[in-house]
Amino acid sequence: MQTDDLIATLAADAGRAPGQTPPQRLALLVPVGVVVALAGVLVWLKIRPDLAQAASGGFFWIKAAYTAALGLGGYLA
């Protein structure tokens, strides 16, 4: 059997895969991953006692935006 014949035979019965598409699955699992990661960080590193004061500074938000941009870039990749 030639390779082209094998591919044609296998593709003849191909249909849509059951279940959700990968983007749908990823859209469901990303929030779960965010919650698990946040819980892990809170347990391991604890909450800063001066978080409200730190959040009023610009450097805090620059770091938050950088982290969000990396997460978005990873999601899009």
Q: How would you concisely characterize the structure shown here?
A:
The chain has helices spanning 3-12, 22-45, 51-55, 58-76. The protein has a domain at 50-77. The protein is mainly alpha-helical and 77 residues long.
What does this structure look like?
- Helix content is about 75%, strand content about 0%.
- It has about 80 residues and is an all-alpha fold.
- It has a domain at about 50-75.
- The relative contact order is 0.06.
- The model has no long low-confidence stretch (mean pLDDT about 90).
| Spatial shape | elongated
Global mean pLDDT:
88
Strand residues, percent:
under 5%
Low-confidence stretches: none
Spell out the helices and strands N to C: HHHH
- The level of helicity is over 70%
How large, in whole angstroms, is the Cα Rg?
22 Å
Largest sheet: none
Q: Give a count of the beta strands, DSSP E runs of length 2 or more.
A: 0
Structural class category: mainly alpha
Number of helices: 4
Q: Compute the separation of the termini in Å.
A: 38 Å
